[in-house]
Amino acid sequence: MSAYWQLTLAQLRIFARNKQVLFFTLLFPIILMLALGSFIGGANSIELTIGIIDADQTDSSKDLGQLFYENEGIETIDYEEVEIGKEAIENGDIQLLIEIPKGYEDKLESGDQPSSLPVYYNEKNLTVSELGLTVVNGIVDQFSKDLVDYKPLVTIEKVGIEALNIRYVDFLVPGIVAMMIMSNNMNGVAGQISAWRERGILRRMQGTRLKASTFIAAQITARLLLNGSQALLVVLIANLIFKIEVVGSWLALIFFIILGTLAFMSLGFIIAGIAKNPESSGPIAGFVTFPMLFLGGVFFPISNMPDFIQPIVKVLPIAHLSSALRETMNIGTPFLQLGTETLVLGAWLIGGFTLASYVFKWE
Question: Any transmembrane segments, and where (predicted)?
């Protein structure tokens, strides 16, 4: 037992002395989280901004314009000239420009023919433009019906349902934690073990009474403490900056951090056994981790991926680690309902260490 604790403390001292590696392995995921979270972190809805030009300046035109100002889903900006409004559309400052022409009230009161309101939009951004045109048409249509005291025979009853409001940054943070666990263990373990083998450190350990199980257990413990601390620090920073909260159980969150660390550490030992030297361990680890960053649901939902990729994605360990962390942090799913994620990560853990025991070499 003393050898186990001595090796664990020695590994932790190595981590502590190598402050540059420690700093950048933590800094990269934090910078990535801050960058993506700041730019698109709250983007869970489409904002609609319209401009209004009231060339009539009458009570009727002001009544119409007031409808847009009172609509909470629309930001309305006044413009004096059409050309200035068109330029705002081209620059992306607004999505639509409504012009209330001169003589609008007179034509409205005469009732000879309907008043026409020119609405300018960006043809190159049809998704938002079509949405805006639909909203504007609905407001104007209701306004017209009110003017003629129109009473519909069929109406709709609005029944609002409060759905789960998850921002992109809420989706992102668990993925960043999963990415950090994968990268630190696969790249870290493979690089360090390969370097020790090349320098003869493992061979000298083998010449002592040290058991391989004690050496691996010490590595696991040290990296669990390091990865657990880093993951919790990322969650804390996300809470302070983006108000991310862990809805579910903290014990479940810690459990999946531990399980994910063990699963990816086993893959790191496999790479360390395959790699002939430290120079080759990095590219091999990168070859494995890079596709998983994009296929494992770290940055994008797995459901958005093509159907032919789904069978591959659903067996990747990072996909299930990201899913388990999101279910725990964002939704608060009980631990017992995450059996699939637990079984898949457990299978990778057992299979990984089993294969690692065959390919691992002391020298």
Answer: 21-40, 171-193, 214-242, 248-272, 284-302, 342-360
Taking the model in full, what pTM does it have?
A: 0.69
Instruction: Kindly give, in sequence order, each residue whose CB lies less than 8 Å from that of residue 227, ignoring residues fewer than 6 positions away.
Output: 180, 181, 184, 185, 257, 261
For 113, counting Cβ atoms within 10 Å of its Cβ (0-12 exposed, 13-18 middle, 19+ buried), the class is: exposed
Range of the domain at 75: 48-147
Q: Dihedral of the CA atoms 67, 70, 76, 82 (nearest 10)? A: 20
Within this chain, do residues 247 and 100 fall inside the same structural domain, yes or no? no
Query: Same domain for 177 and 325?
Result: yes
Sequential DSSP letters for 222-257: HHHHHHHHHHHHHHHHHHHHH-----S-HHHHHHHH
Residues 188 and 331 placed together within one structural domain of the fold: yes
Residues in the chain: 363
Whether the CB-CB separation of 41 and 169 falls below 8 Å is answered with: yes
